[in-house]
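Help!! Second protein's tokens look totally different from the first
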Amino acid sequence: MQLIITLYASYLFGNLVEQLWNFAWPAALAILHPSLLPVAVVGFFGKLSVFLGAPIVGKLMDHFPRIPMYTGLNAVQVATQLISAAMVIYALKNAGRTSTSALLLRPWFIVLVIAGAIERLAGLALGVSMERDWVVLLAGTNRPVALAQANAMLNRLDLLCETVGASVFGLLLTKYDIVTCLKISSALMICSFPILVMLGQLINSVSCHALDSSRTPSDESICADLLDVRKIVQNGLSSIKHGWNEYKQQTVLPASVATVFLNFNVALAPGAIMTALLMHRGISPSIVGAFSGLCSVMGLVATFISSSLVKRVGILKAGAAGLIFQASLLSIALTVYWAGPISQRTPLLIFLASIALSRLGHMSYDVVGTQIIQTGVPASKANLIGGMEVSIASLAELVMLAMAIIANDVSHFGFLAILSVSSVAGAAWMFCRWLGNPTDEQRELFIFDPHFQLQAT
């Protein structure tokens, strides 16, 4: 019990600082410049680093000892967060009004983009190590109930961090200027590093040094090959090609593709684009923070609703219900946005409430979809296919962020919103079509699902 609680504490503390920064930088850039383009560019290169770098980082994590890798990744993430904060503070103090194209070529912005890309990749690697490796090792694969409970708790802690991080920074913005808020965030980042390192060492000590080794036997030649800058592109492309071949052959491919489609929704979801839009519309920072927090609360509620929904209608119908619910609520939000200015109180509340409620469907499918994929993917290929899904999902977000870069004016947000709703509706249609036309292999995998039991009778 002490071991798993220490793991939760490490995950909670590291995630809280990360989520605080994820809300802070787009809010600061929105104050700095009236266009969505700077936020979209930073986000684009962050997703690009994940898409290209995740396969190689995953291999490195398999061959390096866990604790040194954990410490190194935390150091990289904190350092890049501090560099990014320093660049934004410098810009806020020294940069005057300038054109968008001129801003993108400023040295401080280029450094911000590079640091942001590295920070995203380090953050993803830390998340994967905790959620796919450490929790499995410490909870035990031979204890499925304990492992399921640990996974659910990590999911809830992640949503809690989103709520608290956004709310805290929004509250700080109402009391202090943006530069002071960024300095407070930087102080929290600096304080977090030694605490995270100590928690990692404590976890290892309590687990009788179970984390000292790597997942696979360490091979210096493999590590040297992966770190060879001359081969980094070749290694990355090779990993992506192999993963894609395995990914497209899985039985539950439509369920996984539906998950990828949901990642096209970058406009009507809590995130950098939505934060920048609301700040540009003159919405109070406290309302923006409360909206992000409410979205996280809805996601947290969904983790409890999904389990009861699965018991009532089965895992497959529960997945369809989540997708249809999300598509319906986002359609309402899109209608309200096009009907009139959302700066007025009533349209704004309906717009934000529809998006927040849609997170119930989104997170319900996130939980259910994961279980569907776990059921249909062999254990020997779970990490490979799961990693490929993350990479493809990052590619989906890259496409949408590229659209945001092209349509960077706030007046073009409606175009991004249409694409977002279309992607979610497409995911719902694809999943329902797959559910309505099951194959024999699908029936065999989900033989105990009420949907197929009802058809059999």
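Here's the second one for comparison:
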Amino acid sequence: MTSLQPAVPEPCGTGSEAVWASATDATGSDQRKPARRAARLTAISLGVALVQLDVSIVNVGLDQMRGLMTGGVAGLQWVVNGYTLAFAGLLLTGGALGDRFGAKRLYLLGLALFTLASLACGLAPSSTALIAARVLQGISAALLMPPSLALIVHAYRDPAERAKAIGVWGSVGGLAMVAGPVLGGLLIALFGWRSIFLINLPVGLLALWMAYRFTEETTERHARAIDLPGQVLGILTVVALTAAIIEGEPLGWSHPAILGAAAVFLLAGMLFLAVESRTAEPMMPLSLFRNPIFTAAALIGTLLNVSFYGAIFLLSLYFQDGLGMSPLSAGLAFLPMTGLIAITNIMSGRVAVRWGNRLPIVLGLAIDTFGFVALALQLRGDAGYAHIWWPLLLIGFGMALAVPAMIGALLATVEKTRAGIASGVLNALRQTGGAVGVAVFGVIGAGGSSLSGMSTAMWVAAIGLFIALLLGALCIKRRPVS
């Protein structure tokens, strides 16, 4: 939800020039059928919209899900993070699987699983079943996101048309994230919290039929190695860290399970770095981080998501528990944070073209930092929505200004043939940052029930974003974008 156009995941085949070549070699007959091409783009965009929608729509339903939860706030954190961690952990592998088995085949598989997982979420009889279904949703999302971009690349031979199609693809996904809280609030007000998952069924079935009918399988196959050891260690690292943070409060920080999770995090993290540095085709090429601009941009993106996802989680609960808002009102309460994202994204791109990526990054992060400081100061005993709407406006504006330039700065550090893996790494890190943010802020803010705790969480966000601001000022180059 930090940018209208999310970071582009690694498309199947990107990393070599084969997919781009296959798109260029495609016959021109289909290019003369605009209706069919529009249907194809709609089919692909619908799947992406579902994935991005379920990142944000669930937050306004958390308060209504409490009756199902046996673990209190920790259970709600796992509802959010089960999806995010599975999505982040398997995103890069999804691209490699599409290379092996075909983008259309994997997209249809991922979309079908996502639709079934949504049904399982909507019918979940217990908190355990709901969390498991959310994990399956995240796995499915990781399978369908990279092939969705590969299908667009394969279908559009003209570079200008391809760029427009990718722009539509990204904008639809971004708009779905922005619309999530409002749509979720409306559905919950009319039909209850289960409807935020069940709405995916008709949309998913329509997207499946359209994708089967109108998309064409990619013709190239690439036997990219699956970095299984890296995949397992990467997931183990982030899950152990998140589990230690989430469960530390209810179990106690000295509980053997928490100490064990912390030890697993440290050991798995070190082994992950060792494996990735020695593997011929690593899931996350550590060589990318030798470039200080890439490293700075990746850290900025991660810190942005830590603060944003964590704040959204706490505010969603606070609006309904603390301020007594209905789900619909709570969804609408986020509009100051999300309403200007589309316009601000465009502004960021134009500023970057004229003055370089550093200016919108630093300016956006400065506004963001000030917004979180203001929010921390406003969260006091008599805090009402009238006190906090304007910090939310600043936070949303600053995020939307910084994120597109951050993505641009990162992608400018790699060759075109490595753009896919670079953006995939960024997206995985941002999603992981979001999961950590939900875990940390949920603990500090006591699930939105403590104003002092929420204020402390916002101060933590402000400090993190100030560090990101320093990274942007010191490491991102000033020259205009070429």
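Reply: Different proteins will give different token patterns, so don't panic. Residues 159-191 form the longest helix (33 residues).
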